[in-house]
Specification:
binds manganese (II) ion, eight-stranded mixed β-sheet, 2 domains, alpha+beta, 9 helices, D-amino Acid Aminotransferase, Chain A, domain 1
Length: 428
């Protein structure tokens, strides 16, 4: 992936899983679509299309319409794992997206052109073969400069003219067919059924097949690698480059339902410091793992998409507009397997799948990386005003001596004193 594309896609508030390859055996199967009616803080319809190994997702506040004159706002949301398509039930209160989910429609979809190109271009046309929805539809990305047009996530969902259209004035499909497509139940009936609660801990990843994964108990204590500062980025190939996130280094250790937060030295935070970060622990608990250690940086992301370490205390206290965000960049242990000897590239791929499973429900985000020239990355990344770039060897292990290189950006970004760029620890 080129740097320009990486930067264009980059939004610190939204990290998508890298496009996965479809699971074996699915290649020739038809693509599925699903619409989940979601009674969260505000009722909406989650419109999801299977593409690039995940469910591309849009939140449609008013739901789909069969009237080509009606354009429905569709806000793009996090990719969801394909396994989420079957879900109908309750997401516990207090979790992101908490509320009741009703499987409103599902079936298969067919792109009219090249779906990858059309999706990237923000003009995706397709046919639906569902129980309630049929015929041609289009998802068009808004590009205007109006109050809505400024939002990169805003699309419109529009019915195309064909034999399946219906005048909205004669009633809406969402009103006429409110029931679940699989069980025929209403939202209230689903909400009353305590047997179908979303347990993200239930679907674990297969780590046993990962080369270098060593069966081992969860370590009580480990020493995380530290960063070595350099003046220049590494030359040559075989490096993964990440942007440094201004914030505090934080690790999280998952053991069953217990989550312990650890500092940069691998030691548990004080009770008070951990208590202030209890939302992070609660979100880490939702990862589909019985035992895990993740490594990352805790920060707050401003509405303009930039991490802001100074806004972290406010975000932890639930004040201010910046969103508490835990960028994770490594996974030294997962479900009965020590991954410290597994190459970094594979650890991050596993981490991407792990974080992808909880998607928009948590404050966890994968810290993305690119390969290629460290010099180019350093120049481009620093131009964006980040404090430093991080380079790590793609086949490197997770040992105290691992070569993790931090290359600061030369001049402080305009308007920001250099002191703001310091790295802080999670001791407070
Ligand atoms: Mn939703």
């Amino acid at each position: 992936m080129g740097l320009a594309e990486y930067n264009r896609k980059r939004n610190f508030g939204i990290t998508r899983e890298p496009p996965g390859t479809p699971p074996a055996g699915r290649a020739r199967r038809q693509r599925m679509f699903v619409i989940q009616k979601h009674a969260a803080s505000r009722l909406h319809y989650d419109f999801r299309l299977e593409l690039e190994g995940v469910l591309k997702s849009w939140s449609v506040p008013k739901g789909p319409s069969l009237d080509p004159k009606v354009k429905r706002l569709a806000m793009q949301t996090e990719d969801h794992p394909v396994s989420y398509a079957d879900f109908e039930g309750i997401i516990p209160k207090g979790q992101y997206g908490g509320g009741t989910v009703l499987l409103w429609d599902r079936g298969t979809w067919e792109p009219q052109g090249d779906p990858h190109k059309e999706f990237a271009a923000g003009n995706l046309k397709f046919f639906l073969k569902g129980d309630k929805l049929h015929g041609g539809f289009a998802l068009i990305k808004l590009k205007g400069r109006g109050p809505r047009g400024g939002d990169e996530r805003a699309w419109l969902l529009i019915k195309e003219k064909d034999a399946e259209t219906r005048d909205e004035a004669r009633g809406s499909i969402t009103d006429q067919r409110p029931e679940s497509v699989t069980t025929g139940r209403t939202l209230d009936q689903i909400a009353a059924d305590r047997d179908h609660v979303w347990h993200s801990n239930r679907a674990q990843l297969e780590v046993a097949d990962v080369e270098g994964a060593k069966p081992a108990p969860l370590p009580a204590r480990l020493q995380p690698p530290a960063f070595t500062e350099r003046d220049a980025p590494p030359s040559g190939t075989g490096w993964l480059h990440e942007m440094e996130i201004a914030g505090e280094r934080l690790l999280a250790r998952v053991e069953g339902d217990a989550v312990t937060l650890l500092g940069a030295d691998g030691a548990p935070l004080s009770k008070a410091a951990a208590a202030r970060r209890k939302r992070v622990a609660a979100d880490v608990r939702l990862l589909p793992a019985q035992g895990a250690i993740v490594d990352g940086v805790l920060t707050a992301v401003r509405p303009d998409g930039h991490p802001d370490a100074d806004a972290l205390p406010g975000a932890l206290a639930g004040r201010g507009k910046a969103a508490l965000t835990y960028f994770v960049f490594d996974l030294p242990y997962l479900d009965g397997h020590d991954l410290r000897g597994v190459p970094l590239g594979q650890r991050k791929a596993l981490l991407a799948r792990l974080v992808g499973r909880v998607g928009e429900k948590t404050c966890l985000r994968l810290l993305d990386h690119i390969g290629g020239s460290g010099l180019d990355f350093h120049r481009e990344a620093c131009r964006l005003g980040i404090p430093a770039m991080i380079s790590r060897q793609e086949d490197g292990d997770y040992q105290p001596r691992a070569r993790w290189i931090r290359v600061p950006c030369g001049a402080p970004p305009a308007g920001k004193p250099a002191s703001k760029r310091k790295r802080v620890s999670a001791r407070a």
